[in-house]
Amino acid sequence: MSVYAHVTGWGMAVPDKILTNDAIASMVETSDEWIRTRTGVRERRIANDEESTASLAAKAGMKALVKAQLKPTDVDLIIVSTSSPEYLFPSTASIVQNKIGASNAAAFDLSAACTGFIYALDLAAQTLKTGANKSALVIGAETLSRIVNWTDRNTCILFGDGAGAFVLQASEEPGGMLSSYLRSDGSGAELLMVPGGGSRNPASLDTVKQGKHFIQMNGREVFRFATRVMSRATKEVIERANLGINDISLVIPHQANIRIIEAAAKGLKLPKERFVINIGRYGNTSTASIPIAVSEAFEDGRLQAGDHIVLVGFGAGLTWGAVALTWTGPLPEREEVDIRRYQLMGRIRGFVMRWIRRIEGVMHRWTRRY
Ligand code: UT7
């Protein structure tokens, strides 16, 4: 008996605050015209002080659970892909697990930069296919505005904040995740990185003075690499799924630069209309860009049950990869899941657990003393 991994829920969350190109042009030497024509970005979303990677991730994750009509307590695994985690540790996924009340889930973060959502999706699907898990919540979330150097026009024009999520559920019904192709080439690590704050350059006054805690990028080289791998990865997963290019109704690429997407379309000899493009409104939200684009494509009526689609990305690492899947679409209506109740229960549970740990600590000290 074969088990398949179906996408049964999806959702996105972006901050309300919009930062236009004109606003950036008042901060660094650039122009709306340059940014639009060289990247396709018109505006991006920026997190407010209350928002963080975990809060956006939890919001997107809850929307995906509502869509899948899955209780948070029925989630077996949470993977949060991010390059701007809540902390160095613990994982953002554990924070999200507590926020949404997914008290039976394992949770961890995955670091594969902008390709992270593709990596996480494939990994989660494999655990469903082996029977290890029945459901997984896969989230791509970023608050890149916190690690962007707002005086560096090479990078600050590109990035934005946001989160997107998928629910994967195991089923004997054929379909869902069909094939994957994941690659990495660490020889290009220095092309796109945040060099400070890790074990190589621990945070210090010097690392901060040198701006090592900000994103540093060789845009031209990353561009060249991206145009090489996007169409190749797309072709590879289509072949691995035993499909032809004409079977693919939509390609949903990482939203890094409109010119990279256009080059991929050309390489695949596909019209641009076969691609989902929303970089104009959100900029590059790294690992969140693909699930955000999927959520919007669904809302726009561009995804129908049974459609074969390809998700393809590239990013720091260097990493790149793609997945081909058959879109499952919304499940037949079941009882609506009251996510807020689980969120509240999760919060109460978190509060009680913290108090139990405190009381246990006091008791432990007390019994040692007497
Ligand atoms: O998720 C993966 C993340 N990263 C990427 O995907 C990045 C991929 N790379 C790119 O998207 C592009 O390389 C950029 C958008 C970053 C830059 O575009 P480009 O066409 O490759 O520009 P460039 O770096 O070759 O620079 C061309 C010119 C330079 O001036 P000179 O030397 O020709 O006089 C730059 O100084 O444009 C100048 N320039 C700018 N001018 C106005 C660079 N950035 C800006 C700017 N505004 N923001």
Instruction: Using the CA coordinates, give the radius of gyration.
Output: 21 Å
Q: Assembly state here?
A: single chain
What is the 3D form? globular
Report the CATH C-level class.
Alpha Beta
- How many beta-strand segments? 13
- Classify the secondary structure makeup into a structural class: alpha/beta
CATH topology, by name, is Peroxisomal Thiolase, Chain A, domain 1
Walk me through this protein's architecture.
The protein has 370 residues and is α/β, with parallel strands linked by helices. The chain has one domain: 3-Layer(aba) Sandwich (Peroxisomal Thiolase, Chain A, domain 1). The chain has 11 helices and 13 strands. It has helices at 21-25, 32-39, 53-68, 92-100, 116-129, 205-209, 219-240, 258-268, 279-282, 289-299, 339-369, and strands at 4-13, 18-20, 43-45, 77-81, 106-110, 135-143, 161-171, 176-184, 192-193, 216-217, 248-253, 308-315, 319-326. The strands form 4 sheets. It has a 5-stranded mixed β-sheet with strand order 1-7-6-4-5, sandwiched between helices. The longest helix is centred in the C-terminal third of the chain and has 31 residues, at 339-369. It is globular, with a radius of gyration of 21 Å. The N and C termini lie far apart (60 Å). It binds oxa(dethia)-CoA. Oxa(dethia)-CoA is lined by residues 30, 34, 38-39, 114, 153-154, 157, 192, 217, 219-220, 222-223, 226, 256-257, 284, 286, 315.
